[in-house]
Amino acid sequence: MPRVLCLAGTDPSGGAGLLADVKSVAAMGGYAMGVVTAVTVQNTRGVTGVHAIPVETVVAQLDAVADDVEIDAMKIGMLGEASLVEAVGEWLERRRPRNVVLDPVMVATTGGRLASDDAARLLRELVPVVDIVTPNVPELGVLCGQTTAPHLEMVVEQAELVHEQTGSAVLATTGDLADGSSHDVLVESERDWRTTRRLPFVRVDTPHTHGTGCSLSSALATARVGAGDWLSAYRRVRPWMDGALHGGLTLEVGQGAGPLDHGWFLHH
Hints:
This protein is an alpha/beta fold. It has 8 helices and 10 strands. It has helices at residues 17-27, 55-68, 82-95, 117-126, 137-143, 152-166, 212-226, 230-248, and strands spanning 3-8, 31-36, 38-43, 46-52, 73-76, 100-102, 132-133, 169-172, 183-190, 193-200. The strands form 2 sheets. The protein has an 8-stranded mixed sheet, with helices on both faces. The chain is globular.
């Protein structure tokens, strides 16, 4: 069973952040561990408050787990403050767990800002320390210092640029792309040979996408443990994600952008 450490903020409504991570890891057959970076005040209608956990407490949580448990994979989500981004980067250099996935959380699905300007800038510097980064389209633009891509080919160009600048694999998710494209983009290198893949999926017409990025990245980290590469891990995760999006249509949680149904396969 993959032992997966998730580093994220909380969401009291249960759809995003650490609670979504735990559900996603379990759905992929893993054992989830969680380090809290921030306590948010939010629900499906929006984020009204973010309260950061002291940096030394976050690092102490990370060390407590790493001192005791062998970490097979790690998902990094909301960091929020620049000092925490720097501290996590230093911890990764010191501990270097395997299969590290960075979800560069900057803005919630509901529109609430989840990272300071300084933190967003430093997230770019964290990318070279991880194995793969999973930005959505707006986050991808921030990572490469450009505007938000309006179409798939610009997403491809930006993903290749981030990979070239950092050496990290990039999985750009395009569910919110303005031109309606239904392809995720995976860029990675093996033996100095870059491969870019456009990965088609069937778009689910749903307003209930709360926590999609959190869920995808933590599921991907878990799936990578038993897979030979990121492409194989993605191909395992995508059908589960599609089922979770469909399940969210009937979940009836909240009055805004509702969550996914992480355990949809248990009652189908």
